[in-house]
Amino acid sequence: MLKIAYDPIYKYKLPEGHRFPMIKYELIPEQLLYEGTVSAENFFNPGPLDEASILLTHTLEYWQRLRDQQLTEREIRAIGFPLTTQLVERSRTIANGTLQCAFYAQQYGVAMNVAGGTHHAYAFRGEGFCCTNDIAVAANYLLHHQLLKKILVIDLDVHQGNGTAHIFRNDPRVFTFSMHGAKNYPLRKEVSDLDIGLPDKTDDRTYLRILKKTLPELLENVQPELVFYLSGVDVLESDKLGRLSLSPAGCRERDWFVLKTCKENDLPVAVSMGGGYSESLALIVEAHANTYRVAQELFF
């Protein structure tokens, strides 16, 4: 069964006119239910993660100031969201959703978090709509409790996973792979274990050729026990913050290839949704929904 992490807190209320489309987190489950791709039993509510588990990744000083609403105005601007207790609880819930997806993926082959992919959060600060780093938190939990020895992060959001790269820069147990827009945010990039920076306007053919050449070799070399896949749909040509030129069909083929390759290699894969900022909300939801449709077709 495809297990999907979702909580109403994901659709955190933002000020009028904010450019982040929070409503997508409500509409993705509604669309999947409406079309019959999933049923209510596919969804689970992860609840907030305990602080001890968060502190395996984030520094005590940063976490306490985030939790207690004591970040500076500059730090809050870097995150890009108004700082509230609800935002902190949302971050804890998203992180637990990704962790629980890792457990479900080991049982069913794949599991998916309607939110997540908060890859710009460092151990000691947040930025780029990210307060805590859900994939890093989940990976560090699994490693700390000696449940896994080798993890691969496949980050195909259009923006480099700078926070994730920095957190695991000296940890050989986690291999970070980021394929992203070379000239996009963040301006100052970190060094992942493997970075592929793509030029503006990269199209389906070029993108998929590079991915299909890279991923099988990577799995062979890294030999991971579990994959965290960040499947951002901000690679679309229509995306306001993207600068690449993938079509919805190309984005769907990307997801198909990643998930199919993981399945063929008996690799459990936990998927976080990542970014999506097209003008059309329907297009954002449709592109994200494709990831779930592909997972159902391949695994179930």
Folded structure, characterized:
With 300 residues, this protein is an alpha/beta fold. The protein has a single domain (3-299), classed as Arginase, Chain A (3-Layer(aba) Sandwich), CATH 3.40.800. Helices cover 42% and strands 12% of the residues. The chain contains 10 helices and 8 strands. The chain has helices at 24-35, 51-54, 60-67, 73-79, 85-108, 134-144, 162-167, 204-222, 248-264, 281-299, and strands at residues 3-5, 43-44, 110-113, 151-155, 174-181, 194-198, 226-230, 269-272. An 8-stranded parallel beta sheet has the order 2-1-3-8-7-4-5-6, sandwiched between helices. The protein is globular, with a radius of gyration of 17 Å. Residues 20-289 form the Histone deacetylase domain. This is Histone deacetylase. Belongs to the histone deacetylase family.
List low-pLDDT spans.
Answer: none
**Helical residue percent band:** 40-55%
Give the full name of the CATH homologous superfamily.
Answer: Histone deacetylase domain
- Sum up the overall morphology in one term: globular
Oligomer: single chain
Tally of DSSP helical segments: 10
Q: What is the β-strand count? A: 8
Radius of gyration: 17 Å
- Give the end-to-end Cα distance, rounded to a whole number of Å: 7 Å
